[in-house]
């Protein structure tokens, strides 16, 4: 095994899927607070239903989530027991600015400062996402979220507040989580809902442009506040394979990868790639790029590239082939791969392929900030949770990471997704569990919130202690 001595092993959560306390201590409403669990969930996530107010009789999982807000010291102590070097979380924008702009909520600053200090007490490096599918609803209602250029100033003001308030506590930052997901799930990705008859592609790519400018300016501010700050972009990763050697399948897979990577191309290289012009032309998109925007993108690229990896994808020109289940990024089923309980294809070699493809493309340090298996865990009669399937999944992906490092990839770290059980972003379920730590709560919101270690807890502790050498 070839992991560097300073490799950042750890785990990841997001504020909106873990914290709860959705209106406590001055926090404002966010987009995720308005997304219910159940049949209406996808309509809201896809931007087809604008959530003016909460619907009676619906369950909103983010409102309590796993109550990390009140359990963070207990949970971080458990992460420390596993030996975490790094803990990825996000800041809820509306906990710092309840209306997304205006007055700072000092209680929100105090909460995150305490959390990051707790991490530091155990020698854990925080990795913090500024906007993880969590836009203040006040900004959605006032500006239409990132469809409006006013959001650039709102975001950069918020970013500066965070960089200054947590200077010395947080070194590693991400601007927007899975920025490409706004193309597939616009409301959950970027707070975008659609008006009847408008060109949805125009709206999505214009919103992305505003996020890209905001991200570049945030990178500039981060380096001004502290030159030691490192800022990354974040991609929902996974290569598209051609379903066959039919050139049409190969061409489609190439174009799917380009669509997936365009925003990361801009954030790392500092300019829109040449292929983007054809995409814009074919989709009828005319971006409103104002004077100075392209200079900003060019001058302030990110320091590293982070990404999530759960599965590879497959592209075919044959419309009769069956799609996979579960994920908003559409893919046909790969007949060579097994799937999870939720239909997500399991492909450890795909992680090695993705790592090599991204490093070949960008030649910047990479960071895997999400990877894990959503599964139905069972508490045995003796109280144990024997999640060998999760251990097997992670073991094979860690081997793929090691192989990629041997291939020459510069990999900074690895934070498994949902190191403690949380609300699944895709479905809103608690039963889709990812963690090393079980949280007693069900899909209807019932449970004691008691934390329990799974078998994978001690296994991952051993992995970290051995710096990836002991995977048995």
From TrEMBL:
Q: Which PROSITE patterns match?
A: GLYCOSYL_HYDROL_F1_1 (PS00572), GLYCOSYL_HYDROL_F1_2 (PS00653)
Enzyme class, top EC level, equals hydrolase
Residue numbers annotated as active site: 370 (nucleophile)
Enzyme Commission number(s) of this protein: 3.2.1.86
Q: Looking at the keywords, is Hydrolase present?
A: yes
Q: Which UniProt keywords apply?
A: Glycosidase, Hydrolase
Do the record's keywords include Disulfide bond? no
Q: Which residues form a coiled coil?
A: none
Q: Which Pfam families match?
A: Glyco_hydro_1 (PF00232)
Which InterPro entries does the annotation name? Answer: GH, GH_1_N_CS, Glyco_hydro_1, Glyco_hydro_1_AS
Recorded GO molecular functions are: 6-phospho-beta-glucosidase activity
Q: Where is the signal peptide, in residue numbers?
A: none
**Family membership:** Belongs to the glycosyl hydrolase 1 family.
Q: Which NCBIfam families match?
A: PRK09593.1, PRK09852.1
Tell me what this protein is called. Answer: 6-phospho-beta-glucosidase
Q: What is the lineage of its organism?
A: Bacteria, Bacillati, Bacillota, Erysipelotrichia, Erysipelotrichales
């Amino acid at each position: 095994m070839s992991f560097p001595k300073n490799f950042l092993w750890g785990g990841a959560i997001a504020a909106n899927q873990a914290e709860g306390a959705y209106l406590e201590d001055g926090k404002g409403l966010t987009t995720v607070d308005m997304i219910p669990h159940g049949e209406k969930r996808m309509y809201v996530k896809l931007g087809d239903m604008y959530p003016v107010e909460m619907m009676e009789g619906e369950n909103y999982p983010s409102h309590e989530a796993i109550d990390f807000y009140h359990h963070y010291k207990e949970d971080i102590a458990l992460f420390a027991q596993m030996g975490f070097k790094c803990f990825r979380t996000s800041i809820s924008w509306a906990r710092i600015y309840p209306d997304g702009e205006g007055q700072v909520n000092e209680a929100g600053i105090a909460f995150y400062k305490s959390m990051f200090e707790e991490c530091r007490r155990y020698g854990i490096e925080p990795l913090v996402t500024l906007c993880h599918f969590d836009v203040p609803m006040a900004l959605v209602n006032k500006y239409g979220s990132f469809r409006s250029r006013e959001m650039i100033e709102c975001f950069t003001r918020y970013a500066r507040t965070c960089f200054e308030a947590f200077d010395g506590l947080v070194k590693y930052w991400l601007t927007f989580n899975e920025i490409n997901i706004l193309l597939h799930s616009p409301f959950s990705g970027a707070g975008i809902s659609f008006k009847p008859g408008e060109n949805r592609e125009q709206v999505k790519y214009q919103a992305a442009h505003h996020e890209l400018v905001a991200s570049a300016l945030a990178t500039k501010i981060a380096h001004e506040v502290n030159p030691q700050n490192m800022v990354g972009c974040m991609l929902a990763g996974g290569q598209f394979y051609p379903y066959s050697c039919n050139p049409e399948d190969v061409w489609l897979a190439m174009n799917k990868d380009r669509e997936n990577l365009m925003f990361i191309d801009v954030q790392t290289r500092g300019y829109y790639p040449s292929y983007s012009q054809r995409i814009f032309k074919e989709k009828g998109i005319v971006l409103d790029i104002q004077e100075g925007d392209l200079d900003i993108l060019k001058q302030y690229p990110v320091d590293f590239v982070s990404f999530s990896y759960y599965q590879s994808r497959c592209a075919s020109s044959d419309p009769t082939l069956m799609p996979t289940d579960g994920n908003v990024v559409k893919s046909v089923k790969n007949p060579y791969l097994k799937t999870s309980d939720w239909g997500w294809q399991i492909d450890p070699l795909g992680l090695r392929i993705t790592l090599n493809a991204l490093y070949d493309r960008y030649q910047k340090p990479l960071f895997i900030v999400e990877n894990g298996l959503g599964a139905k865990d069972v508490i045995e009669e003796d109280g144990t949770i024997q999640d060998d399937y999760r251990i097997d999944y992670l073991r094979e992906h860690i081997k793929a990471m090691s192989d990629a490092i041997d291939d020459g990839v510069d990999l900074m770290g690895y934070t498994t997704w949902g190191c403690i059980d949380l609300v699944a972003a895709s479905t809103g379920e608690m039963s889709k569990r990812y963690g090393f730590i079980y949280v007693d709560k069900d899909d209807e919101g019932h449970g004691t919130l008691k934390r329990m270690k799974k078998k994978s807890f001690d296994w991952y502790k051993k992995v970290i202690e051995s710096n990836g050498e002991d995977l048995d």
